[in-house]
Known about the structure:
44% of the residues lie in helices and 16% in strands. It has helices at 12-18, 39-52, 73-80, 96-112, 130-133, 154-160, 174-190, 205-218, 231-237, 242-257, 273-287, and strands at 3-8, 25-29, 60-64, 87-90, 121-125, 146-150, 193-196, 222-225, 263-266, 269-272. The model has no long low-confidence stretch (mean pLDDT 94).
Amino acid sequence: xxxxxxxxxxxxxxxxxxxxxxxxxxxxxxxxxxxxxxxxxxxxxxxxxxxxxxxxxxxxxxxxxxxxxxxxxxxxxxxxxxxxxxxxxxxxxxxxxxxxxxxxxxxxxxxxxxxxxxxxxxxxxxxxxxxxxxxxxxxxxxxxxxxxxxxxxxxxxxxxxxxxxxxxxxxxxxxxxxxxxxxxxxxxxxxxxxxxxxxxxxxxxxxxxxxxxxxxxxxxxxxxxxxxxxxxxxxxxxxxxxxxxxxxxxxxxxxxxxxxxxxxxxxxxxxxxxxxxxxxxxxxxxxx
Length: 288
């Protein structure tokens, strides 16, 4: 997955249009983009959308439910689990225990709806409060359902009482750069996908591209989008180039030819085992 596009769960027109955006995943949102009085209707619309969606060769279908502490998560899951979402996104997660709590709720509904145990995956939004920052180390081995971690700066800035979360040049201010980096480390430690947060200024294509390139450079494998126009840029940035693939294939082939050695020379550059690991990960991403 390279791109994941947020779509309000109560907006049938936007859901219908989202199919043509080219995103690798659609995040049907039942949380922030849906007013409290509209949530029952959003659940019905989201369930109908998932039920009618053609699954073959289409985007993955992720549903962002409401937070565990708000009393709405069970209602969300009761409505959408019969429609077989591919993945549940958990907002306001506090750590591995939050993922485990959600996993139990999902498992019950998988059994009730005749779904294969473990077939519904989880992506956790891991940095939306100050408290959540101290739980990042607990995602490792917390659940076999966990497939990705992402982070967010908007809710975190509200929790901190900050005036803004970005500097004048558009880059993240210190607390949010820290949250981003720690989320990346947490994802790597848990051996799950690291997914970069949204870029809210959807008209600033250059800013989006720059932020996506930085995210890819640092180790993120995907980025979330809030507008269909952002999807092509994100897909382009997170798709390995033919040159990158060729270089990675050369590294893998060199070590396969001489598995007993720890360092090989390729085009005048000394390449060791960490380079091999990076090459293997890039090829896996290119294949997917």
